[in-house]
Structures are given as C-alpha cells and as structure tokens.
Protein: Glycerate kinase
Amino acid sequence: MRVVIAPDKFKGSLSADGVAEAVAGGLQAAGSCTIDLVPMADGGDGTLDAAVRAGFSESTRRVTGPDGSPVDATLAIDAGTAVVELATASGLALLPPDGLLPLTATSRGTGELIRAALDAGCSRIVLGVGGSACTDGGAGLMAALGARLLDAAGSPVPDGGGALADVARIDLSALDVRIRTTEFVVALDVDNPLLGDTGAAHTFGPQKGADPQQVLQLDSALANFARVLGVAQEHDLRDAIETPGAGAAGGVGFAALTVLGASPETGLELVADLVDLRGRVRGADLVITGEGSLDRQSLGGKTPVGVARIARAVGVPAVVAVCGVSSLSPDEERAAGFDAVWTLAELEPDINRSIADAAPLLTTIGERIGQWTRTAAPSEDITSEPAPEEA
Structure:
C-alpha cells in the first residue's frame, strides 16, 4: 500500500509534522507500506513551515511583536516569492495566556515583515493570516508600510483595535510605492466579514481576551476605521467589509484586500499548491488527514475536509481522519469525505491527558488504521471495509 499522511496541527498539542510522524510510526509497526508525509496548514500558523518544506529559504527579522516589544519573526523566500506568516510576528501564541491584549495588540510586526520581503526584492508576497493576537483591522500593518492614522487633532493614534475609535483621518500619501507593483495573495482560513455578529470582534475577540463590552467596543472601532479608510481611498468599502475573509486575523484580511490589493485564496488551497498535494496523493491507496477537533468549522474549509476533497478528486479510494475529538455526526463525517474517523478521546477521555499524550495516542491509532487496512484482501477496495469501532 501507498499511504499519504497529510494532517494539520493539533493546536496546543502537536505540530502537523508531529502528528504525521506519530501516525506513521504506528502504521509502520502494523505492517509494511510506503508512507509519504505531507504535513499541512490552512493559511494560519504552519503555513511558513509548509513553504520551507517545499524548498523556500528561511530569513529571520527583528520586528514589533503584538504587545509592542521586539520579537524575532521568520519569512520564507524563493525565486521572488515570499511567504509571510502573521502568527510569527503578531500571533496570539506570542503572548502569555494571562497577558492577552484585546484592545492594544497590533499587527505592526506583520507589516514590517512585508517591508522586509519588499526590501529583499520580492515581487509576489503570500500572506498567511491565521492565529493573530490583534483585532486592529490591519492598521498596524498599514502603519509599518507608511500609512498614518490620525485623530481629530492630527496626532497619530496608538496601535491596537481600541484606538481605531479615535481615527479621524488616514493619510496614505507615504504608503510604500512598491505595493503597487507587487502581487499580494492573502491565504484566508476563515470566511467571516469584518463587522457584525459574525465579524472579527464578535467571533474571534473573546479568544483574544475581549470581554463582551470590549467586543462591542472593537466592532464599533473597526466600523469607524473602515469608514475613514473609505474616505482616504475615495471608495465605498461596503463590499470589502462584507467580503468573506475580511474579518480574518482581527481584520488584517480587510487591510490586505483593500490596501494591499491582495487576491483572496483559501489557505488550504494555497498550501496544497506549495507542497504539490494533488501530485503527491495521486495514485495513493489511502490518505490520512486530521486536526485537533473535527466540528462544524471544519466543514467550512479547514484542512481535513480540503485534503479529503482533493484526494477524492484525483481518485484516492479511501480517506480517513484522525483528531482529538469529533462533534460531527457519522453522516456529516461521510459527507465530508471520510470513510472513517479515529479520535484520541476514544483512547483517552481525559482531555488534558489526551493533549499531553497526543503523540503516543496517535501512534496507537496509526497501528489500528494499519490493522484495519489489512483486514481487506489485496484485491478489495479499502472502502468496502466496515468503519472501525473507534470511529
């Protein structure tokens, strides 16, 4: 058998590489097969690693972190194309869990990474925007590239989403001119608009430490920011505000679409192209994918469902998923393209122990998947076998 293992990370537990290696270890223990590891990402953290695995060279820069202090962030460059991952410069993981900054966290460091890519002569920049700490509409990113956000007195407003309520004028005259001749692609991992009940503040603000009052404050501040930016660009931005993905990364998606002129692309599709996923799954007997939690968000285009769709499109006979937990019904799992789903929760119901021991648990699951595939005669299609008890 030829097996391709193409999972996303198990957030807070294992990287995509770690997940793939753990499952592969179990498969190898269960019997002989050819295994190709293709760790994936969906445009958020892990996108940079995928680019490096595809042959891009890493370059580290000292930039402004989400709390304003310096951090070392990495971009990947190859043949005039740069991959910039917001999470390395402005990510939630850069802040301590008890030190989240919902009103003041900034995307400035991501703009500084973009400037570094421009300085390196890159003419195409791929921006992965998942995992952000900020809800600043991309204002910090814009400021790093020369935009000036001013209050009613003409003074610069501080960084952070909360201060956007005070923006009265945005001066784009000093915006880096190289933006006009650079192709930008923004890898979106969500489809939320900028504002409203499903927008950046309401959907993701609580994850970044915002209480209910701060969520309302941030949503109102983003609305003001979008209005003033529309005046500065002499363009009605209502369509951009409602564009799916504008709310990604606390509104950085909105700034990418409007100020950088970026073309939106689903993060999974972009990473799939980087690692040649279609070519690598073609001819496989089995594809194994997964992520930490399979849920309704997964159905909106997260990595496992995207991998399953690509595998089915090129004729792979069987696709299975591994995850920490699944809240999908069996019908939803089948509709998403999975012949079977294995969960860590079936082996270890204690969520904390499951997170801490994800690697050995995944190795056990890898063994069980190997045993499951061996129950079919060589001439039989794997998909004819019944779902495992762990599914």
Notes: The longest strand covers residues 70-78.
